[in-house]
Fold:
Amino acid sequence: MNETLVTIRDLQVQFDTRVGRVQAVDHVDLDIQHGEVLGLVGESGCGKSTLGFSILRLIRPPGLIVGGSIVFDGENLLAQSEAEMNRLRGKRIAMIFQDPMTSLNPLQRIDDHFVETIRTHEPQVTREQAVQRARDMFEHLGIAPERLIDYPHQLSGGMRQRVMIGLALVLNSDLVIADEPTTSLDVIVEAQILDLMRDLQREYGVTMILITHNMGIVAEMADRIAVMYAGRIAEIAPAQALFDSPKHPYTQGLLRSIPNILLKDQELASLPGSPPHLIDQQPWCRFAPRCPQVMPACREVNPPLVNVGPRRQAACLLYQ
Ligand SMILES: Nc1ncnc2c1ncn2[C@@H]1O[C@H](COP(=O)(O)OP(=O)(O)O)[C@@H](O)[C@H]1O
Ligand SMILES: [Mg+2]
Structure:
């Protein structure tokens, strides 16, 4: 599990809005290893989805990838043609969205979704073969294959999210990007879906980027965790190490602010303040205004990620 599948370097994504230019992803470096689940966490608006969408090159105006590189299996995705990206999307890199209704066609039966997904990328497969693959997938998903002839609205929210997971896995993609995949579900169904995702991830050996604002979910699912703050990576570490000894004051605050049975002797506290607007960013540490350990130098430089332990890095002057 130490071969790199995705190498992101100096990625910059901007949105031109009426009130100004938003730097949603701000000089991000990130490596994703074959077969791992990388959790991408942080408060709402910190750039998680933008980073995920960038890998599929699904940033649309007013957004624009303005710099950097995303090398996937040896190829820079930012240099590919749109036709080449279309071949990669769904086939080698799949995405699971928060709300399955936005990606399922309400007028199309579930089996047709599978047939279309499979035959778009593997035209030699017959409809019958594609339906058979969908039936096999439904067994894995724990849904009776008879439900394949249903329309999306006839399924429960949890079933629809299972279908999305099935559609993401049916082509044996190398990389699945799951963006808040359980946020729209109730907690019981959420736990079932997470169990399913973990089982299928192991079974298929798929590499996964799991985007969530929920530290409990990454605690359960992720091998490694990247914490984002205001468009940048604040800290990245193996999951257990991050929970055992968070280094960045933002990570420490995040962990204190959630009720978490994994943390002993915890006092529940809330992180004071709110994330900055990403317009006209200050050229110094984004977290300084909220940081309980802020020092004068924090208002002078924007700290780069530095090594703070085995396989772990943090972007904080406390460690430089
Ligand atoms: N379509 C858009 N138009 C303008 N600004 C956007 C758009 N999408 C995202 N942004 C801005 O980019 C920043 C990051 O957003 P996003 O990646 O969705 O964050 P997250 O997924 O962490 O909640 C936010 O400040 C958001 O306002
Ligand atoms: Mg998001």
